[in-house]
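INFO batch 0412 | record 1 of 1 | parsing
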Amino acid sequence: MKLIRIHPADNVAVALEDVAGGEVFADLGVTAAEDVKRGHKIALVPIAKDRPIVKYGCVIGLAREDIAPGRWVHTHNVRTGLSEDGEYVYDHKVLPMPEAKSYTFKGYRRPDGRAAVRNELWIIPTVGCVNTVAQQLVKQNQHLVTGSVEGLYTFPHPFGCSQMGDDHAQTRKLLAALVRHPNAGGVLVLGLGCENLTMDQFKAELGQWDDERVKFLVCQEAADEIAEGSRLLAELAGYAGQFHREDISAAELVVGMKCGGSDGLSGITANPAVGRFSDLLIAAGGSTVLTEVPEMFGAESILFDRCADEAVFDKAVKMVEDFKKYFVSHGQVVYENPSPGNKAGGITTLEDKSCGCVQKGGSAQVVDVLGYGEAVTKKGLNLLSGPGNDLVSATALTAAGAHLILFTTGRGTPFGAPAPTVKISTNTALYDKKRDWIDFNAGTAAQGESLDDTGRRLLDYVLAVASGERTMAEKHGAREISIFKDGVVL
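INFO prediction complete | emitting tokens
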């Protein structure tokens, strides 16, 4: 099959492979009027100027001109129908979910009762000035990675000083959330001493902590910060080394979901496969987290209608409206998306991108809406406030408590978050080309495998990663964070 009509109401089809002009598709009643690349759209019927372009059964834009059947449908003849305004009404829908089943993985049990999928040592710099010290400590203490201690990492960033207001608060909150992450068996919090994110301020943000698991070092107060840091890391390694893998219910897993470098197959293969996975995990009692608010614009009602109650609906609407205000306050239009790479891959408008993006949320009810830096507390599908930027949103997912992150992509990317980051290709060509980036091929869903089977196969892979199988990003040492900022740098 070269062309797919995703929904019976669609007036366009998507090319699963490159299509040559003149090819006849009798089952769809259309002949290609020109060459169309994989992931791009072909008109199935005449579409008059200003009439809707329908894909996924949803309006993804409006025709700029009359479009004849068989023509390529893309940015040259389609425009967005979005604006900054939006009115939302709660129209509660409950969709079918998979049968509840039990699954387990081999994870770590923390003293506070939480589960973890990794047992690592983390160095969290409270200010960018000590990034080099943190990196030296990582380099000089790799001998501590032994036994059940699986790695020693630091996450450099440029913030923690010269920030004010919300930016200062967000940096403090995000870094404290990383310190709490269960995948870290031991954490060294590293400060300088003169930054405006003082160690006392950071401790107040952190709240309670286990003195055996979390240590603090202010470099200006140490005679030799490398020697002192190494001593503290050795103590942390001794503590973390006491933990060993054991059977844990998958109901305790929290999995983040996002996409990047998307293409025209993202909403046909990888994203709905992740949605099937999400439903399976939630049916088993687990939790998933969906973020990238700007990539919900135009498809937000799909999620709003599945909010478990009006209180959750109100929080979801506020999350979207606040992000729109953020765009407008900076003089930007909310629909200035997709990226050049998205467009090259066949995504035409933000509505097109969003309708594919939200499919990662499957069919489950939305149980909660989290602010930036907030952690998951409710079982089920959670929405998280965060931008579309890959590193920023993946960092926010980690801070929300995601044990690992599923990242769908049609074009590929090598980055990794602090939590294990599973790269899922939308097409088999990318999987074959970038085997050192991609962990899981969902392109098979365009080659005859059912989405249900792809989702079940993905669940099996996630349980393997949770049990210790390393992702490609982990194998290459790709561990990065990026903190959301909005205001003035002093």
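INFO post-check: The two ends are 57 Å apart (CA to CA).
INFO record closed
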